[in-house]
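Researcher: I'm comparing several assemblies side by side, and this is the next one on my list. It has 865 residues spread over two chains. Same procedure as the others: predict the full complex and return the structure.
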Amino acid sequence: MKIEGQVRIPSGCAISAVISKDGNKMSGETITNSMKPMHDRSNGLGGGFAGYGIYPEYKDFYAFHMFFDSRDTRKKCEAFLKERFEIVQSEIIPTRKIPAITDEPIIWRYFVAPLNSVLVSLQSEEKEFVAKTIIKINAEMSGAYVFSSGKNMGAFKAVGFPEDVGIFYKLEDYEGYTWTAHGRYPTNTPGWWGGAHPFTLLDYSVVHNGEISSYDANRRFIEMFGYKCTLQTDTEVITYIMDYLLRVQGLTLNESASVIAAPFWSTIAAKTDLDDQKKHTYLRTIFPSLLITGPFSIIFAFDGGLMALNDRLKLRSMVVGEKNDKVYIASEEAAIRTMEPNAENIWSPAGGEPVIVKVKEGAF
Amino acid sequence: MSIEFIYPEFEVIRNENKCISCRICEQQCANEAHSYDEKHKIMMCDDSKCVNCQRCVSFCPKRALKIVKSDCTLRENANWSNETIKEIYKQANSGGVLLSSMGNPKPFPVYWDKILINASQVTNPSIDPLREPMETRVYLGKKPSKVQRTKDGALDCKLPPQLELSMPVMFSAMSYGSISYNAHKSLALAATELGILYNTGEGGLHEDFYCYGENTVVQVASGRFGVHADYLKAGAAIEIKIGQGAKPGIGGHLPGAKIVGDISRTRMIPEGSDAISPAPHHDIYSIEDLRQLVFSLKEATEYKKPVIVKVAAVHNIAAIASGIARSGADIIAIDGFRGGTGAAPTRIRDHVGIPIELALAAVDQRLRNEGIRNHVSLVVGGSIRSAADVVKAIALGADACYVATAALLALGCHLCRTCQSGKCNWGIATQRPELVKRLNPAMGSERLINLMTAWKHEIKEFMGGMGINSIEALRGNRLMLRGIGLTEKELEILHISHAGE
């Protein structure tokens, strides 16, 4: 059977997230438990998490989480990395042997900083260089896969039910101010660990529930700018689109949401704020190929915050709740109640309406 | 008869029991195929004059007429077809180049008919266009590659000139001269009502039609007929016509007999003089010359109008398009080898150029490989016959389609392919006043509006089925297409998978 990247596999899903606006740390146990009531939204073929603020001792270094199919591949990849990065720490990611998770690859992490001499000789901006290197490894180095690459954050994913994946990775040992989670229901997959979610690039991570109908239009456009969609998944292309809009084009989160879940032309025409109307007309005209259609609910997390967004018709469930300094987002209210039984202000964001939550300046 | 005799291609069959000798057929036929025998009080016909335009059939009040293909054939020969032999007789008689009209009728593969469209089932929902918004609006023009901000950090919303279309279809170039005043008026009225554009072709713009300028593409072709400052400023966009699909590499020739009255004035050439469009533009012998013409036209119109460069689909089209994209053009129009024409040398029409489907696939991919696809919009024509063709073209990567033959059919054309005679019984490809007035612009435009409205409905149904609610998300979305009965090579060029994959 073909794995992600050789074939496009549609899937349904469950997503969940929690963030502390005050930057208070939470162990990964809470988010793991939140996936239990949504068990039926996954089918055991993929689960994963992303935590932010989890590596304070290495916060100035890019944390590369990697899968390798063999020791040889790891050695080859390490040689490749050493030519480009200073590796300050390299270690096995601790896991727990449990019957529910089997056939694991070699799972390793590296804390790295790009060599200045390399940056100078390539005339490359640091983040651009790191992003391109990751895309290169994932596209060209068979058997090696970078599944997380941001600073002071990390993704953890596997083939299995998400609540088991959390136990497998010992997430209770990590403390983060933001956690996101994903349970996967692919319609057809042999189960490849790289194909699980979240999908990440630098400090951006995306968990997504849906199957976008604009996929190939989005993919063929974004690939013009150096991205390679090796997995053929929605989450991957959405991550690249967000990276392109935020980092390369310098748009704000709200502006990016207006590109990917653009208001209908009729909605734009009805706007009474003429500047706002002009802005939306401009964004739709300049980035028509980055409009995402079809059902999606995504939680896009980044250094210091997250954004939740539904497709403009709201074809997927997604609810938001609050309690004190925390904001909870999930496919189902049950997941929120698991994390915080007394959650307040539970509401369903409208299609195309971004929910942006940022941690207070300096608190993370 | 003689050695020159060629048995007529069609026979007019008149049912004598039904015919009431009302002589309507006689009045309707500009080719004078029908006549009335006063002495015997019966209708007569000369089959040799019939072009099978179906005018008499359509207007016979008793349905007493039909036109059939003649069964008088030469001895069958798989190598020497009847048509080939007759063409040799014609050339032996005349010593001339064979002329034809409309698009290539030969049985080359029609790739549109070998491509199938996707629909949603279970994993994502289809969308009902009757209940949910379904957007078909497109903007054609150069998209800036970097977002700009003003000093205070707000988005700087200035854009290069864009054409707004309510649906991804435009009426493509047909000159005033090759088609009639009323045909032009029908197209202009319909384009205005539909929120799309029509195209003047290379014959200039009649002064009566300047009022439809916002929905007009004004063309600048190698003959530069009717081109002046006000003309350039009148349209919403300017199109430089390098070539057309029906006759790539070939110029045009409107006989002096048709250069009369308003046509002479509109083309700005003396009455009775032949209007000859040279094969190349004599100020464009290379790509850098094209850049100069693009910018001359932009200068003349203060950079307010997008410039379209129209080329025929030829072998090296991907590289040519890449060159055009870098020439400053805002839009590239590509015309496939099935594109129609008022007159073309038969051999050229039938043997030069490539199918638009392959040209489009190659160009779109090439521009993406070079990272410049968003620098230009792509418009394709050369036999877009239905809403399904439009959907497939958009999914292959086009921003919009040009249609002309379909529009003429809506106006009454029966595709008899004898436009070059100038005796169009449907009032389209003619300048004879008594024929022109047969086409009522109000009715003509209504039929065009009906056709495009029907297509729009169908496009929305296709989109809804795929779970796509904006045409932007369909553009270049080749995953929505599958080939059927295509070779590996064809699939590779089209960059689509085979059905079942």
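Model: For your comparison table: The interface with chain A takes residues 120, 123-125, 127, 132-133, 135, 137-139, 143-144, 146-147, 149, 154-155, 157, 159, 162, 368, 371-374, 397, 466-470, 472-480 of chain B (CB under 8 Å).
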